[in-house]
Amino acid sequence: MTEPPFDPSGRLTTTLTAIAAPAPYTPGGGSAAAIALALGLASVQKALNLSRAGKGQLSDAQLAELLTTLPRAEDLVGRAEEDRAAFAALLRALRQPKTPSRRAAVDAARGPAVSVPEHMLEDAITLAEAAARVAEHGNPNLTADAAAAAELALAAGRVAHLNARANQRRAERKDYSESLRRLEAAARRARQACDQP
């Protein structure tokens, strides 16, 4: 099998520069969280693919089914731009002069600024739960890769939760405690799998 090219200093450097830029409409923490999710997905896919042919406790059919539950890489990468665009639209609306039309613009912009991180939180849970299962029952030599996926999902999900709440009106902030509980439980399971003899 030919090894794919690995160039972490390529496009990733451009993305990091954009996130670090002090300009107001450039990507921020939400975009970083989306990229962390994509990295986590790649990590669990590696663990899944190297658990085939009896290298773990999961059958190839179970592994294939688990793979279908995962978010797509292109969707996770796309969320980085969705998050940037959604927050930029909210920021532009908030910076409008205080007129009656501003309230309508802010309300319209809040929807995507909340729903994009909420989708990321859902993706994080899906990814972390799949990673925990692979860490527990996949190839024991890839347990740390699966756990890495769960940890990246945990960090990204926490950021997504913070962003979703920050973009809601204070009086209307939702409670995401059950989502966070599921996310943290999955990451804990993956960590514990690493401690098994």
Question: How is the topology of this model organized?
Answer:
Elements: H1 11-20, H2 29-49, H3 60-69, H4 73-94, H5 100-137, H6 143-166, H7 177-194
Describe the structure.
This protein is mainly alpha-helical and 197 residues long. The protein is 73% helix and 0% strand. The protein has seven helices and no strands. The chain has helices spanning 11-20, 29-49, 60-69, 73-94, 100-137, 143-166, 177-194. α6 (143-166) packs antiparallel against α7 (177-194). The protein starts with 10 loop residues before the first helix and ends with a helix. The mean pLDDT is 93.
Outline of this structure?
By secondary structure, the protein is an all-alpha fold. It has one domain (28-194): Four Helix Bundle (Hemerythrin (Met), subunit A) (Up-down Bundle), CATH 1.20.120.
Count the DSSP helices.
7
What is the level-2 CATH architecture name? Up-down Bundle
Secondary structural class: mainly alpha
What's the CATH topology label?
Four Helix Bundle (Hemerythrin (Met), subunit A)
Return residue spans where pLDDT drops below 50 for at least 5 consecutive residues: none
Total number of strands: 0
The amount of helix comes to over 70%
Instruction: Give the overall pLDDT as a whole number.
Output: 93
Total count of domains = 1
CATH class: Mainly Alpha
* Distance, first to last CA: 31 Å
- Secondary-structure element sequence? HHHHHHH
CATH superfamily: Formiminotetrahydrofolate cyclodeaminase monomer, up-and-down helical bundle
